[in-house]
Design brief:
The protein has helices spanning about 1-20, 25-30, 40-55; strands at about 60-65, 65-70. It has about 70 residues and is mostly helical. Strands 1-2 form a two-stranded antiparallel sheet. Strand 1 and strand 2 form a beta hairpin. Helix 1 (about 1-20) packs across helix 2, helix 1 packs across helix 3 and helix 2 (about 25-30) crosses helix 3. The protein starts with a helix and ends with a strand.
């Protein structure tokens, strides 16, 4: 169940990064979670960052000047 959840979250993040202009980690988090308050948004941003780092390791995204886009 946890692996399935992780896979769905990774897919959602990749979909956001692939659509439109390159985005910062914060912009991806705000797109994924539109109503999170303060500290929860900080945790969400950390989660997105971890997913994006894994996606970079896997060659799925790249980062230029702090903005992520599809590789």
């Amino acid at each position: 169940e946890l692996k399935a959840h992780h896979g769905k979250r990774q897919a959602a993040i990749l979909e956001i990064v692939r659509s439109g202009e390159p985005k910062t980690v914060y912009e991806v988090a705000r797109t994924l979670w539109t109503r999170l308050p303060g500290y929860h948004l900080t945790l969400a941003t950390a989660e997105v960052n971890a997913h994006l780092e894994k996606a970079m390791d896997d060659g799925l995204v790249r980062v230029d000047e702090g903005r992520f886009r599809a590789a």
